[in-house]
Amino acid sequence: MRKYLSFKRGGVRLPGFKEKTVNKPIIEVIPDISEQMRYPLHSRTRAALTPLVNTGDIVHVGQKIADSDDAFAVPIHASVSGVVLGFSDTVLPDGVEDVVFVIENDGLFTESPDILPRGTTAEGFFELGSGEIIGRVRDAGIVGMGGGGFPTFYKLQSALQNEGGIDYIIANGAECEPYLTCDTRLLYEEYERVITGLKTLMRLFPNSKGIIAIEADKQELFDLLEEKCAAVPGISPVQLKVKYPAGYEKNIVQSYTGRTVPPGGYATDSGCLVFNVDTLIAIERAIRRGRPLMRRVVTLAGSAVSNPGNYAVPIGLSFASLIDAAGGYACEPHKFIFGGPMMGVSLADTDIPVTKTSAGLLCLNKKDAQITKERNCIKCGKCAAACTSGLLPMLLNKHADAGDPKTVEYFEKYNGKACVNCGSCTYVCPSKRHLAQSIFRQKFI
Q1: pLDDT in tens, 252-296
Q2: Cα–Cα nearest to 64, from 139, 152, 142, 153
Q3: Which of 88-102, 198-212, 336-350 is predicted with the least confidence, judged by mean pLDDT?
Q4: What does the pLDDT read at residue 46?
């Protein structure tokens, strides 16, 4: 029996719920004329962006519409052509209120002269120096699209300064969250761009090896990637044991290299760089084709959706419009989850713009959205065994929920800040206690 790579501590086996989307080709969503597209003026790191256009201005596809001098910020670009209507307030999926740029789509999709026409390739892109590569990545507005939203150019700059160097550049295609299949579809349909993205970054780190990591239950995809990588020196696919959260950056590093990322550290501390599949595709588009990040692939799934699948969505389009474009609801939706069921957050409604970190939206009926009532902890220890960070969730939950003045003290004592909010503890708890949720709330108090 073949032995697959895996991380050492914790983890759980989850049902996939991927069968309704994983075999469907990605569908491109084209916004209707007069659709109002909205672009948040704060980055995921909360760095503020300064508008570069004014109310009433005409903008074009790919035009830079906001930027910042902040080291942790990247620009945003219009994904449609049209007129700037102004600004409005909105609440983003993480619950933070923000100001958004509003552009009315004129339906023409006139492209900015600053970007290359579709289908063209910039000659000599493999001869670019490290400064030019990082500059293009920054100007294209690329961030980590697996959910973190960390500026990619800054990640690369920091890695170049890493004293130990970079040994491995890993394309994270593990996609261990139930329902989500956007990265899997991208690997099937755009594997050439993923490979080119890896090759481009490997120029920055000449001693590095490129890895494409996927879970072991995707044998057909692994065979495809193995065939396509055979002629590409230094790049190969690897299979990870099907165990959640295999896609967590530190777990991928440990699974492949056996190295442990130190507490509070990053993958670069262990000589690795890990990138989401769609991030690598965005890098290929920026370097080779001169196109900024203007779209992302979103998994739309759940029991209340008429046509679950993966959709290439222009950034700024509302989730409500995405649902309409996908055929609407199959039944009355009872709950919306931004992301996957383990680490996602509930949405009050779908009138929220798709952003660079929007990997999925789940629309669930009443039965699937039902939350079981909590019962008393039976001190079985299953939550501790499942914790990939080696914590004691039952004790963190006890003190987070107690209202005790010493809660913060206990939280620090039991290293609560190290929680990655994977939800494994909640999943395995026989008493159905909301462990991860209570720890997450306390973590940000």
Answers
A1: 999 999 999 988 889 999 999 999 999 999 999 999 888 999 999
A2: 139
A3: 88-102
A4: 63
Rounded to whole angstroms, how far apart are CA atoms 183 and 181?
6
The C-alpha angle 436, 323, 103, rounded to 5 degrees, equals: 100
Please tell me the distance from the alpha carbon of residue 240 to that of residue 217, in angstroms, as a whole number.
9
Provide the 10 A C-beta neighbour count for residue 178. 17
Q: Name residue, tokens 């530190």.
A: 250
Residues recorded for the chain: 445
Q: In what order do the strands lie in the sheet with 335-338?
A: 27-28, 309-314, 295-301, 360-364, 335-338, 345-347
Q: What are the C-alpha distances in Å from 135 to residues 140, 171, 264? A: 9, 21, 28
The whole-chain average pLDDT of the chain stands at: 92
What is the rounded average pLDDT of the residues 435-439? 91
Q: Please check whether residue 200 is in contact with residue 125, taking contact to mean a CB–CB distance below 8 angstroms.
A: yes
Cα angle for residues 56, 60, 64 (degrees, 5° grid): 90
With tokens 């690598």, the residue in question is 280
Whole-number pLDDT of residue 1: 47
SS3 per residue for the chain: CCCCECCCCCCECCCCCCCCCCCCCCEECCCCCCCEEEEECECCCCCECEECCCCCCEECECCEEEECCCCCCCCEECCCCEEEEEEEEEECCCCCEEEEEEEEECCCCCECCCCCCCCCCCCCHHHCCHHHHHHHHHHCCCECCCCCCCEHHHHHHHHHCCCCCCCEEEEECCCCCCCCCHHHHHHHHCHHHHHHHHHHHHHHCCCCEEEEEEECCCHHHHHHHHHHHCCCCCEEEEEECCCECCCCHHHHHHHHHCCCCCCCCCHHHHCEEEEEHHHHHHHHHHHHHCCCCCEEEEEEECCCECCCEEEEEECCCEHHHHHHHCCCECCCCCEEEECCCCCCEEECCCCCECCCCCCEEEEECCCCCCCCCCCCCCCCCHHHHHCCCCCCHHHHHHHHHCCCCCHHHHHHHCCHHHCCCCCHHHHHCCCCCCHHHHHHHHHCC
Count CB-CB contacts under 10 A for residue 95: 10
Residue type, position 98, single letter? D
Nearest to 344 by CA among 441, 423, 427, 430: 423
Here the tokens at position 379 are: 């001190």
